[in-house]
Amino acid sequence: MLVMGVDPGLTRCGLSLVESTGGRQVTARDVDVVRTSSDTPVAKRLLALSDAVEHWLDTHHPDVMAIERVFSQLNVTTVMGTAQAGGVVALAAARRGVDVHFHTPSEVKAAVTGNGAANKAQVTAMVTRILALQAKPTPADAADALALAICHCWRAPMIARMAEAEKKAAEQRRKFAAKIKAAR
């Protein structure tokens, strides 16, 4: 499974590609950070981000995309930019039929470090170790994008089991409702 991890942002957007061959075995395939200038109008920044993400999707053909869920911060402007960037990324994936999953920062930190409150240095160190990288990925947006992809690789089997259970439960509810209706 090829997972594209995205740490969305208007100034810096981390992009990564990680391959999972089953279990906890993951391999980094690519990582980059898209940068846009804060002096550029937001619409043009989003367009630049969209172009970069579409290039990645066309080049790498991921099976799934993992995007960091917007986390409430004190700075509303930052939250808005992050949400806009995440929306552009999700839209590009949806246009290509790539399944999109959102993970919270604490989910990602817990998955890669065992601590949902880990700091950036701890996340970077664990990403470096998990992927057996020769050097730490920099800036932090690159490490975060890799961590998102790793998190999804490790959570995907559980997500699939939950979806199957929800599907079975919905079918049971439908059958039960039909049985009750027939009994009336």
Automatic annotation (TrEMBL):
Pfam families: RuvC
InterPro entries in alphabetical order: RNaseH-like_sf, RNaseH_sf, X-over_junc_endoDNase_Mg_BS, X-over_junc_endoDNase_RuvC
Subcellular location: Cytoplasm
Cofactor entry: Mg(2+)
Signal peptide: none
Key words, A-Z: Cytoplasm, DNA damage, DNA recombination, DNA repair, DNA-binding, Endonuclease, Hydrolase, Magnesium, Metal-binding, Nuclease
Residues given in the record as Mg(2+) 2 binding sites: E68
Function description: The RuvA-RuvB-RuvC complex processes Holliday junction (HJ) DNA during genetic recombination and DNA repair. Endonuclease that resolves HJ intermediates. Cleaves cruciform DNA by making single-stranded nicks across the HJ at symmetrical positions within the homologous arms, yielding a 5'-phosphate and a 3'-hydroxyl group; requires a central core of homology in the junction. The consensus cleavage sequence is 5'-(A/T)TT(C/G)-3'. Cleavage occurs on the 3'-side of the TT dinucleotide at the point of strand exchange.
Family annotation (HAMAP family): RuvC (MF_00034)
The protein, known as: Crossover junction endodeoxyribonuclease RuvC
Organism: Mycobacterium helveticum
